[in-house]
What does this fold into?
Amino acid sequence: MSLPNIVTIRELSKEYRQGEINVVALNNISLDIAQGEFLTLMGPSGSGKSTLLHIIAGIDRPTKGVCRVQDIDVTKLNESRLADWRNQNVGFVFQTFNLIPVLTAFENVELPLLLTRLSGKRRREQVNTALELVGLAERSRHLPRQLSGGQEQRVAIARALVTDPKLIVADEPTGNLDSGSAQEVLSILQLLSRQIGKTVIMVTHDPKAAAFGSRSIHLEKGELTN
Amino acid sequence: MTIAGFIVRNALRNKRRFLLSVSSVAMSLFLLVTLQVALRELTNPINDEGSTLRIIVRNKVSLAQPLPARQLPTIERIPGVAAITPFSYYGGLYKGDEKFTSFAQFAVDPARALDLLSDARVPPEQMQAWIADRTSAIVGKMTADRYGLKVGDRMPFTGQIYPCDLEFKIAGIYQGTADDRNVMFHQKYLDEALGDPGTVGTWWVKASSVEEAPLVTERINKAFANTSAEVRAETERAFQLGFVSMWANIKILIGGISMVVVFALLLVTVSTMSMAIRERFRELAVLKALGFRRRELFAFILAESFGLATLGAFFGAGGAWLLYRTLDMPKLTGGMFVVFEVTPQMLALAFTIAAVLGLLSAVAPMIGVARTSVVQGLKTLD
Amino acid sequence: MALPLRYSFRNVLIRWRSTFATVLGIALVVFVFVLLQSLAAGIEKSSGNTGDSRNIMIVRKGSTAESASLISRENLREIQYFEEIARNERNEPLISADVLVLVSLPRIDGSGEANVLLRGISARGVELRPQVQLVAGRWFTPGKREIVVSSRMAKRFANFSLGQSFKAGTASLTVVGWLDGGGSAFDSECWMDADECRSLFERDLYSSFLARPVDEAAGAKLLARIEADRRFKLKAEKEVAYYQKQTMTAAPIKWLGGFLAIMMSVGAVFAAMNTMYASIGARTREIGTLRVLGFRRRSVVAALLIEGALLALIGGVAGCAIAYLWNGYTTATMGFETFSEIVFEFTVTPRLMGEGLIFAVIVGLMGSFLPSVRASRLPVINALKSV
It folds into this structure.
């Protein structure tokens, strides 16, 4: 069974000036990503893999080319539309977790929902569901500093899930974790893709992490290799 | 690149913070200096050489109570008295002024007053003209300049204290005293307007020598003890200080506020400058790793915080000094403030405070540097 | 949609150590402002509180103060028979001729002398001022060298206790009673018999007349009549109006308070800005994350502004609280109208405290504005990448 493509990228390029040098971050990338895939982007540092991820996720713009996510060309949306779009359609997981230190786990996961019109009751339900999925329901009242690295990242995944987005985007999610926690996190991501049908796109330089994915692509100097 | 250059470049790394830190120090020191100048202007009696010989004699009841004119010959005969003139504060409202007139008018006996106005410089013909014309007056140069008055002009006044309005013809302009603002006119003119009540406001007496002055005050006081108009004679300085003591509360208030300002300033600047240095822990740790000794790192920190504070003092206190030299204070404040100058002591105080500030704000970072090992310092990524 | 208030609130709490100094700085600025204005408010309150709304005060035309005015007995003889003036049960016209004398008396703490306002007053004068009450002893006997001093002045000047005497001029005055002016200008006065006063201080002329007109209409007529008559050279106005105009002492204090507050607050704004730049600067990644999650720039700016305002507000509350400790504290200074010592209380009104708080909030907002806008403007990627 072939699922429809959720992401369609055509001739995507990104250049920028760094002082006097013109840096080519991405060079004419074309790519299709199917719904439900767990795609890993690999490559050495400076290869453009993070840039590609950022463009797909709507937090950076290409210099040329098209990136459609479910029929919406994200490269054409303006700032505020993009913000709304991100809120509804993308879940982020960062290497540095990026939880808000003054909010509890529950409140952190609830944050994206505050931008929707859901009632307090519905929000609570969705947050609890997300926390249970990552196995942290009992720690919902804890502050980030009271959680271990792995727990923090799992809360971050719950936050990424809570608006039920199509895409989960993860930038080196296990970079700051010990191998045990890393395994947990990668298993959850895999579960999201295989059993819940989310499309997961993950940047990593670790082949063992990449093994959790369903497909792997390599970038070097802004171009797809292999 | 020299060490000094390195320190300067470091300090300027975050230009905005540098600017803000210097500005808040400058602002607060500017305010501190201004408060002190105002205080000094309001409370310090004006001092000149002649004042050590001069004595003011007033009614013991209060300054507002007049003295009988017949006291003059008695005082004149007292040993040690070199000169005496009536000296009555008229306190009129100058034409055009709404609520108060910022310069004083005094009724005197011009021929006698010459001796007491020893510092004043008046062209002799103007002096003679004054003595000759009963309705005339001499005006201090500051007031004359302020209102654009010259010899021959008329000055009308409405009586505030005395129930009579007077107009004077300007016979001369004087300068050279510590307070070139006043108008001096004839006591006889005032007497006529009042219907000869036979009183004066106060006596202005000159002692024959500095040693005699305190003795003369005693003799004058004794001379009128138990009469119907007992007097209090005091040296001019004591008299002025007495006036000033009525302002006691204002002095305390301004003094208190100055302390508050300094304290607030200290607090804020110390904390912000410390914050600035805390951020550069990693950098300092790297320097340590490179071989710079603790001593040298302390010197860097101190140099930066001192430099910041001193710069603030320069702009704040120095700015105040410059500002008050160029501004025409009498004009701006309607005569309320005349001199308004920043003394060297005030500048010294400001720079001292800045130095203390510099020292205090370096303390916390220095302790931090001393305590943190290179490894820990390098670890501070966040 | 906005960021929850608790985000701003908790950020203020969590950073209390680094922002402590700035909060204290703002507290001090507000304290100075409120204190000085409460000084002025106290002076104004005591003069605004003075006088009976029915009475009419008559002084010499052109004099700015009662103590500087001089009016003659002939004037009294004529005016007291005007039909506009009310009469008491004994059919005496309700008009009082007062003499104001300044006397230099020693302070109780030995710190020198200060001018005290003595009012030579008649029995009818006391009647016309029902606001003034006797709180100890008795009223002076006409014809005797007796004096009733303000109870508040009694605490500040030597020999003002009941039964004590002090020298004024050639004679000795005995304190027979204490009066309370009810928080008005009369709290800074001492009263004695008018005739004794005149003979003691050799005064031919009176300082002022106080009259009670029959009614409002008669009062208006009286005012017009006195103004119109050129022989008199007198000025008549309602007693309360006269005292309300005595703003010369409060005005410079108010001005000083405002001036100081503005200057100090400029420094405070710089300090707040510095603090917020540092505090916000340390959270660039956090702010980037919020924007990634979909929060708009203006929501971020709003949350940060609220943080700054809250911070400053805490300082403001502290400043008001410390200022309030001075509320009701009695103090004195030399009044510019009378050149005598005036007693009054620091009056920290709710309105003043409100002004202080608003002031603090404005300082906080001004201080956080630039840092907040700057932080929100950063492109999301740069924010995420920062250390």
